[in-house]
Specification:
CATH superfamily of the largest domain: Metal-dependent hydrolases
Shape: globular
Number of helices: 14
CATH topology of the largest domain: TIM Barrel
Structural class: alpha/beta
Length: 467
C-alpha cells in the first residue's frame, strides 16, 4: 500500500513540487559546518538549485519569494535509529511489561503496519526529514520505496534483527515478528538470505552479552553474519552496548553501532577499529532514562509528562499514556516500590556518565557520530525525542556546530544517502528547516521550528501539528 493519500493533505503549503521557491535573508547553517549570513536558498521543484550569500543566486522572475530574514535555515534533521514497529509506549514492547488484556500485541502490530503515516507526520512536525529504521517487522522493509514523497520522511530499513537472545513476546505471528536466529551456521545463512529476500539493505544484529559458555561460538556466528552480509550487499549494523561485544562487532565489519558503549570507557583498540571500518557511532543517550521513567510511572501510578514542544505526538499515543493505573496491576508487587525506581534512576545516571565520556572520546578521535534516539521505545517518542537527544549531546560537552553536523550530514551518511540529503548543496533534495532561533549557539533552537520543507514543499510547522 502506498503512503500517498493515507492521511489528509497538509494544506497551506507555501510551495508545491515543481515550483521555484526562493528563501531569502536567513542565516544558512548548511550541515557541513559552514554558516552564510543573510543568504538565499533557491529551490527548483524538489531540488536545491543554489545556496549562497544574497546576490550570488539568480532568482527567476516567477519564483515564489519567501522572506525569512532574521531566521536560520538548516538541513532537515536525520534520526539514525527509529522503530516503526514500536509505538513510544509499553504496548509496543511487551517484553518489558506484558499486559495482553490492555494491549494485545498482535492488534498493536497490525495497527502499526496499517498506519505508518502517524509517525511520518510526527517526524516532519518535529523537523525530521529522514530516519533509519534499524530493526522491525518485515513490512518495514517496504517503507523506503513508499516514503519518497513530500508527506513522509525518507526511510532506510533493516527489517528483523538477527540475535541469539530471541524474546518470544515480540513475535506476533509469521508475518509480524522481530527476530531471526543465529545459533548455528545454517541459521545464520538462512537469516541473511531472509533479509535479502524481504528487501533489507542492512543486517542488524542484536548482540547482547552472550553467556560465558556460548561466547566464543556466538562470536564466530557474528563474524559469519558479517561475511555473508557483505557478500549479499548488506551493511552490518550491530546493537552491542558492552565494550567487548562492540569490538567483536567491529571486527565483523560493522558499519554502524546503533548504541553507545556503556559498560566501561572505550579504549584505543576500539577507536582504531571504529576508524578502520569508517563506522558510524550512534550514541542513543536518552532512551534508557525514558524506559526508566515509563516503567516508574506505571509502578507508582502517575501519568508521565512528555516533552512535545511543537505538539507533534498523535492523540492515540497521548491517550495511552493516561492508562498507567490500568497497567499497574501487571507490575509485580516488588516492582512497585519507589525505592526500586530510584535505584534504577541511580544506575542509569552512572551509565550516562560513561556514555557521555565515550561520546567525547569518539569525537576527539575523529569518529563519525550520528544523532539517534531509538524512537518507538517507551517514552522515546517518534519525533520530539530528537530534541532531547541533541540536548543530551550538548550536555555531554559537544558544541552546537558539531551536533548540527551529526544530526544532518552524518545521519545521511549512516543511511547511505549523503548524495541525496543531509547538507544544503545544489543538486540535493530540498529537505530543510527554518528556525526562529540560532542553533549554532544552542541546539535547543531546533524547538523554535517555524517551517519544514520536504522535497521542495514548504509548510508552516503549525500545519503539521497533531492538535
Amino acid at each position: 500500500m502506498a503512503l500517498v493519500g493515507l492521511f489528509a493533505p497538509l494544506v497551506g503549503a507555501t510551495g508545491i513540487s515543481g515550483q521555484t521557491v526562493a528563501l531569502e535573508g536567513a542565516t544558512i547553517v548548511d550541515g557541513t559546518g559552514d554558516v552564510i549570513p543573510a543568504g538565499v536558498v533557491l529551490v527548483e521543484g524538489d531540488r536545491i538549485a543554489c545556496v549562497g550569500a544574497r546576490g550570488t543566486c539568480e532568482i527567476p522572475a516567477d519564483a515564489n519569494r519567501v522572506d525569512v530574514s532574521g531566521r536560520f535555515i538548516t538541513p532537515g534533521l536525520v534520526d539514525a535509529h527509529v522503530h516503526f514497529s514500536q509505538t513510544g509506549w509499553i504496548d509496543g514492547r511487551p517484553d518489558g511489561l506484558s499486559a495482553p488484556d490492555v494491549y494485545p500485541y498482535l492488534e498493536t502490530s497490525e495497527y502499526n503496519r496499517a498506519n505508518p503515516e502517524r509517525w511520518h507526520r510526527s517526524y516532519l512536525c518535529s523537523g525530521i526529514t529522514a530516519v533509519f529504521d534499524v530493526g522491525g517487522h518485515p513490512w518495514t522493509t517496504t517503507l523506503p520505496e513508499r516514503s519518497e514523497h513530500p508527506d513522509a520522511a525518507h526511510v532506510r530499513a533493516a527489517g528483523p534483527l538477527i540475535t541469539h537472545a530471541t524474546r518470544t513476546a515480540l513475535m506476533a505471528n509469521d508475518e509480524l515478528y522481530t527476530f531471526l536466529p543465529m545459533d548455528t551456521a545454517e541459521e545464520v545463512s538462512e537469516s541473511v538470505r531472509a533479509l535479502v529476500e524481504m528487501g533489507s539493505t542492512a543486517a542488524k544484529v542484536w548482540y547482547l552479552r552472550p553467556p560465558a559458555d556460548r561466547r566464543e561460538a556466538l562470536d564466530r556466528r557474528l563474524l559469519q553474519i558479517g561475511e555473508e552480509a557483505r557478500a549479499a550487499g548488506l551493511d552490518l549494523i550491530v546493537h552491542a552496548t558492552s565494550l567487548r561485544e562492540a569490538k567483536v562487532a567491529l571486527r565483523a565489519g560493522a558499519k554502524l553501532l546503533v548504541h553507545s558503549v556503556e559498560d566501561r570507557p572505550v579504549d584505543d583498540e576500539f577507536l582504531e577499529l571504529l576508524g578502520a571500518n569508517d563506522a558510524v557511532y550512534a550514541p542513543t543517550l536518552v532512551v534508557g532514562g525514558f524506559w526508566t521513567r515509563a516503567s516508574g510511572s506505571i509502578a507508582v501510578g502517575l501519568t508521565p509528562e512528555i516533552d512535545d514542544p511543537n505538539e507533534c505526538v498523535d492523540a492515540g499515543t497521548r491517550a495511552k499514556l493516561e492508562q498507567v493505573l490500568e497497567l499497574q496491576g501487571y507490575v509485580p508487587e516488588a516492582g512497585r516500590s519507589p525505592e526500586r525506581f530510584y535505584a534504577r534512576l541511580e544506575r542509569g545516571g552512572a551509565r550516562k556518565v560513561t556514555m557521555f565520556e565515550n561520546l567525547r572520546r569518539v569525537f576527539e578521535a575523529g569518529g563519525t557520530i550520528a544523532t539517534a534516539t531509538d524512537a518507538g521505545n517507551p517514552l522515546t517518542l517518534h519525533g520530539p525525542s530528537i530534541y532531547n537527544e541533541m540536548e543530551a549531546m550538548q550536555a555531554a560537552g559537544l558544541e552546537p556546530d558539531d551536533i548540527i553536523v551529526m544530526s544532518t550530514r552524518n545521519g545521511a551518511v549512516a543511511m547511505n544517502r549523503a548524495s541525496d540529503f543531509g547538507t544544503l548543496e545544489p543538486g540535493k533534495l530540498a529537505d530543510l528547516l527554518v528556525l526562529a532561533e540560532d542553533p549554532t549557539r544552542d541546539v535547543r533552537a531546533f524547538r523554535s521550528l517555524t517551517h519544514v520543507m520536504r522535497a521542495g514543499v514548504l509548510r508552516e510547522q503549525r500545519e503539521l501539528r497533531a492538535r
